[in-house]
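User: I'm new to structure prediction. If I give you an amino acid sequence, what do you actually give back? Let's try with this one:
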Amino acid sequence: MNKATLLACVAYLIWGFAALYWVETKPVSPLDLVAHRALWSVPVLVLVLLAMQRMRAGLGILRQPRALLILLASATAQACNWLIFLWAITHERATEASLGYFLLPLINVALGVFLFKEVVDRAQRVAISLAAVGMLILVVENGGLPWVALGVAVSFGLYGAIRKQVNIGAVEGLFVETLLMAPLALGWLIYSGWGGLGQYGGRVDVFLLGAGVMTAVPLICYVVASRRLPLTALGLVFYLGPSCQLFVAICIFDEPLNPIQLFSFGLVWLGLAFMAADSLRRMRNMRRLRHE
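Assistant: Good question. You get back a string of structure tokens that encode the predicted 3D arrangement of the chain. For your 292 residues, that looks like this:
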């Protein structure tokens, strides 16, 4: 395994087992956790940019009004994603959250079609159709839409779609996003009595203060990996994250997964398998053409 693949695996493993970290902050509310993530990420990202010698580039974004507006929109989508995910894992809905991340590649395809007029190939049409059937089954079984799964997938999908509108490095972009969130986060924490900090013991305080590291480290690993790996390879490693989330939800949090839910998951996984197989086929064809 090369260094780039290892870093990608580290990023997705951290995201996959992140629920085990955030449950240690109970009984802090999800909204307070979002504020802690936004606020404590700023100093972490400042140190990272200084180490990368990219601080000037990060601060330079503050002089670009268009970029700031786009990053404000992406920061809003990011905060919504954090809030939904944190609410899910603190309300015994981690299984649904993992389904949301399994759905994310399919949501990205749908956003590409509707927002960017991208062409959908046969494998993607099959995958979206299977996922739609799986969602319909869950709607009937639950008596309503699986809002957590859809909220996680759509919010993160929109985050990616918005970020595509500005050509800015991922670390610099996250720095500005958290910087834009920081005043509101600080104001909220002051209003709420520091969001549980100093109220539930030293153990909880450590996890709250570590929220910035927990947010920034996997992203940095992902950024380095994404620059060195083909998108196809990175996409295949992606499924490590939600697979670990599902493992944590069922095997550690002991959340139920009934046969109907399992069948619905199976349809989504089958659709993803079609997309993965098609991506591998395309990658092999490209390699063959290069060697001819």
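You can read the tokens as a compact description of the fold. Here is one thing that stands out. The two ends are 27 Å apart (CA to CA).
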